[in-house]
Amino acid sequence: MEALEHVDLWSSQVLVLALSATRIAVAFLLLPLFTQDTMPALVRNAVFLALAALSVALQPAVDVAHFHSVDWLRLFGKEVFIGAVIGVLFGAVLWAFDVAGQIIDMKTGASMAQVMDPLSGHQTPLTAALLSRLASMLFMSSGGFLLLVGLMLQSYALWPVGATLPPLKSGGMTLIEAEFGRVATLGLLISAPALVVLYIVEAAFGLINRYAQQLNVFALSSSIKVLASQALLILLLSTFAQLLVDDIASRPPIVLRSLKAMLR
């Protein structure tokens, strides 16, 4: 009889651990860092479970004896929602770098040459792959991973595993929409210097074509635009790196305020 009680206790703790790991897994999987191509599933799941075990140890004990199937579904849905919001709000700047690279490649005509990007898991142009990997490496090297872990633990203090999800405020979806707008805005701002240079190059080739019509301007402009955009990106790498580091450092309080505005 005592053995059965121990089994029941451990099974309850396993369910609580799985519940805690759901929020962490959803938040981290939305970042282009923990895909199947960049990290083995065993290592990735071990990281999620280790962080979940830490969160369970720091939270009040959860009495699951009176939980029914509907209660478990509601709690898992709450964890998925909070994890998704944290992942979107924290990882937006990483997506913005990928968007900026795609805009530049589309303007230079290099979008026809695509490679398999293991960070995003799909085909992407070369400049987009470069900026995406730059953003991911800076995220890890600048302490973004530790900031995200700290943010996850703070979210458990505000919304424990056993607590139900508060009513969603009417302006909650507006915050999510604004974040997607922020991704597009950041992507355009990051690519703006290269776009300006590319428009100048196109204007110059337009003048050349007017006075030297025997030249194949289209064939020349493609390679010149690629070289000009890549040279400018090399010059601006330090600026992009500082932009990313500053944005990552400012994210935790912004994400918490946004969650509080949505759920309180």
TrEMBL record:
Against InterPro entries, the record matches this protein to: T3SS_IM_R, T3SS_SpaR/YscT
Q: Where is the signal peptide?
A: none
GO biological process, alphabetically ordered: protein targeting
The compartments listed are:
Cell membrane
Q: Which PANTHER family match?
A: FLAGELLAR BIOSYNTHETIC PROTEIN FLIR, SURFACE PRESENTATION OF ANTIGENS PROTEIN SPAR
Return the similarity comment. Answer: Belongs to the FliR/MopE/SpaR family.
Write the protein's name. Type III secretion system export apparatus subunit SctT
Instruction: State the organism of origin.
Output: Scleromatobacter humisilvae
Taxonomic path:
Bacteria, Pseudomonadati, Pseudomonadota, Betaproteobacteria, Burkholderiales
